[in-house]
Design brief:
By secondary structure, the chain is an alpha+beta fold. The protein has two domains: 165 residues, 3-Layer(aba) Sandwich (Peroxisomal Thiolase, Chain A, domain 1), CATH 3.40.47.10; 148 residues, Peroxisomal Thiolase, Chain A, domain 1. Helix content is 31%, strand content 25%. It has ten helices and 16 strands. Strands 1-9-16-15-14 form a five-stranded mixed sheet, sandwiched between helices. Strands 2-8-7-5-6 form a five-stranded mixed sheet, with helices on both faces. Strand 5, helix 4 and strand 6 form a beta-alpha-beta unit. It binds acetyl coenzyme *A (ACO). The site of acetyl coenzyme *A (ACO) has 23 residues, from helix 2, helix 6 and helix 7.
């Protein structure tokens, strides 16, 4: 089912001026998982491309990961955040429903800013970027912090081998600032709520579309259905979006899809088509960190000298909801 909103080329007056990441110290490898559930390193690597994921400490929550990612960004790019006027945190695992993680970040750094958490699962970071670009370009804000951060280990059932091999914890943030020559070229977002029952965490309610869900607050998914939806729908969505924006995949230097599963990304790339070698993946050592996979993959691209100033990046998040969101941006940092 196709139900997206796609823009052509947009007028942007915002650009990314810094990026930072953080992952917790504890490593959970495929071999560790072999001791916890009936699985094997070979099965996990073959089906997902994941080798390791990071796990937050017992007393370490999403806001702690956000704070460390921001400190990393300040150190890497020598940016100042004291004049940030809006904080957007994309997360499905906030420390509390409220106060928001964004408020906890604001209080930690003593900022004078608006603060909001947004919930769009693995598409959250790209939705946050779209909001930051829109708000800055409309003159509502000048400097916005966008963070994708998760502690999925706290909502993962480590007796369920179909999910516990996938998820990990991590955070990534960017600073988006006013820039006359903005670098957001075109965006897309969409949703298929009708398929939401294939991937969920119950909250106050445990019935979706008349069907009773397993309701203890952990993540549940029908992996095969999600796989089919992502591979069957997203390549067409991306191609028709590029056409509307009068761009082609040849204009894209780096494709940065949500790192849900390397096999899924391979299948998506084959169908678009797009060379896998120009795709960035953060899952090998971090697993699926939901809203954090895209900034974590961008950091890997920067660290490995792949992303260069002037490159065009196609960021594409998708996941629970079901939702998806894309942004084609020009990278301006050295
Ligand atoms: N180790 C060994 N065997 C396993 C494991 C495991 N960890 N998990 C399942 N199996 C078995 C199953 O029991 C089944 O056995 P059977 O054939 O005897 O019944 C067999 O492997 C195949 O199971 P499937 O679930 O059909 O395996 P599939 O090939 O679909 O791979 C996977 C599972 C990796 C989860 C895949 O479906 C997938 O990646 N789906 C997308 C997941 C995703 O991206 N989710 C988004 C979440 S992000 C968010 O929004 C929070």
């Amino acid at each position: 089912m196709i139900s997206s909103h796609t823009t052509g080329k947009i007028k942007s007056q915002a650009s990314i001026t810094g990026l930072g990441v953080y992952v917790p110290e504890r490593v959970l490898s495929n071999h560790d998982l072999e001791k916890m559930v009936e699985t094997s390193d070979e099965w996990i690597t073959q089906r997902t491309g994941f080798r390791e994921r990071r796990i937050a400490g017992e007393e370490q929550y999403t806001s702690d990961l956000c704070i460390e990612a921001i400190k990393d960004m300040i150190q890497r790019y020598q940016v100042t955040i004291q004049d940030v006027d809006l904080i957007i945190v994309a997360t499905t695992t906030p420390d509390y429903p409220f106060p928001t993680v964004a408020c906890m970040v604001q209080a930690h750094f003593g900022l004078h800013a608006g603060a909001i958490d947004i919930s769009a699962a693995c598409a959250g970071f790209v939705y946050g970027l779209q909001m930051a670009n829109g708000m800055i370009s409309a003159g509502l804000h000048k400097k916005v912090l966008v963070i994708g951060a998760e502690t999925l280990s706290k909502v993962t059932d480590y007796t369920d081998r179909s999910t516990c091999i996938l998820f990990g914890d991590g955070a990534g943030c960017v600073l988006v600032e006013f820039d006359e020559e903005g670098s957001f070229i075109t965006t897309q977002c969409g949703s298929v709520g009708e398929e939401g029952h294939h991937l969920y965490r119950t909250g106050l309610r445990n019935v979706i579309e008349g069907e009773k869900m397993l309701g203890n607050g952990n993540i549940y998914q029908n992996g095969r259905e999600i796989y089919k939806w992502a591979v069957g729908t997203l390549p067409g969505e991306i191609s028709s979006w590029m056409e509307k924006a009068e761009m082609t995949m040849e204009d894209v230097d780096w494709f940065v899809p949500h790192s849900a599963n390397l096999r899924m990304i391979e299948a998506i790339c084959k169908r678009i088509p797009y060379p896998l070698e120009q795709t960035l993946f953060s899952g090998e050592f971090y697993g699926n960190t939901s809203s954090a996979t895209i900034p974590l993959a961008m950091e890997i691209g920067i660290r490995e000298g792949k992303i260069q100033s002037g490159d065009k990046l196609l960021l594409y998040g998708f996941g629970g909801g079901l939702v998806y969101a894309g942004a084609l941006i020009q990278w301006k940092l050295d």
